[in-house]
Amino acid sequence: MSGFKVSLVTKAKEETEAFVKGVFPPECEILFQTEEELRAGIADIDIMVPGHITVDGDLIRQGAKLKMIHAGTGYNNVDLDACNEMGCYVAVTPNVAAQSVAELVFSGFGALKNQIRMWDNVMKNGGWKSSDFIGVPEFKGKTLGVVGYGNIGKCVGKIGRGFSMNVIAHDPYCKDSGDGTELVDFDKLLAESDYISLHVLLTDETKHLMSTAQFDAMKDTAILANACRGPVVDEEALAIALKENKISGACIDVFEKEPLTTESPLRSMDNVMLTPHIAYCSNEALLGRYAFFADNCQKIIDGVVPHMAVNAEEVKK
To answer: Is the pTM of this model over 0.85?
Structure first.
């Protein structure tokens, strides 16, 4: 099979092209497209890697040649029913970004607790500290609560233990942590954790998993990190909790609507670290991500069910 057209949806065309050079099978013609270009030429596309754009039913039904849509760790931006209807696989990408995400979480935690942004500004404006009593705690001995104890959650827990933290986790689908981490109920995790990191898929159960009641249940010294899916956190409730000092801070990489609106109150808060959905963007994670995409493209070419296809049984029908 030749002339297989693969659309990589990106705004960074030149950088993406250079990064993936030689990664995909030679039978694939790789198109580096904006969302608008993809939508205009969807009828010719065999495989789509949509990134963060919404892949709605209308778009899928216009893609008569579509054989696979390759998502990241989650596929909530893809209309699965329409893909089933059209016989198009939806594949997800496992575990390639666990280290990258976990490192960003702890970068945020460390920057907030050590007031790095403030002290950097002080120094660059010619200042110096006026006291040694700056109110900075150590990670050692603190409790890290991990919500969702899959590959990424386990990686976060491992880093926490490296800092001599007490690690607890909540995951209703995990019966054995596999690494000795204590599995606790959600209320206990909220009440006991000094740091909470979220690593769950977006489902009806997890939408606004963190809202007013949960922030009220947390320690007022606690810091929250969200590097999974934006709607897992009720942003309006988070802004109120931060403003009223119900929690100490938040490190947020994903948002209910992306890009984050310029009017969001989170943008002006000193006790928030904001990053623009970059937790998965280490060089190593991106290389692993594209290599996985390429391997699944080869499977499609070979007529084999792609790895991590969430709707394989439906497509087989």
So the answer is: yes
